[in-house]
Amino acid sequence: MKRFLAILALALASSFSLSAQEHGKPGTSTPRPPSTSSPRPPGTSTPQPMQDTSVPDIGGWVKFTSGLGRFTVAMPSTPTDKMETTKSEHGPYTTHLFIVRDALSVYLIGWVDYDPSFNFNKQSELEANRDNFVKGINATLLTSSPTTIDGYQAIEFVAETTDRVFKSRVYMVGRRPYQIVIGTPKGQDDSVQTSRFFNSFKIRQI
Fold it and tell me: Interior CA angle at 172 toward 37 and 4, to 5°?
């Protein structure tokens, strides 16, 4: 069975080789869809808008919330957003990617929305994402372990290239796989940033 999460892994990997102004090939990005919420009568509760928000956090970081992604995370700045929908024999699937670069590191968050008719094995998708990410950046897998984070099935792994170390977590939340990554030059102590980034990432149940 073709694993579509590999597409997300390759998209994440390719971002490391792009400049701050380049986030994929021209024409592949599409605007974020507007909220599909319907007007509600006066006096009734209003549903949470499907929009992104970013507010200042301590230490010069921001607290970023994705309405469509249903997650909140602390990052050095507000991320750029890329979304791409691809047709397949199992129906269309959509990949989403948020990227932040600071002076040394790159922070990424991505997820995939599958067609409702597509059935897959969750553990296989997690492992495929890890393997294709490592392959996509020509890295060597150093450590990998299955785990449970906030009640969600996950894999945590570390890989390295000749000049960078990549730390990543892959989650499976309902039918939606998420991946978060931080890539830092070798020899740079990124323990504080990694801990803050990873531990701040919270997902609402889908």
Answer: 85
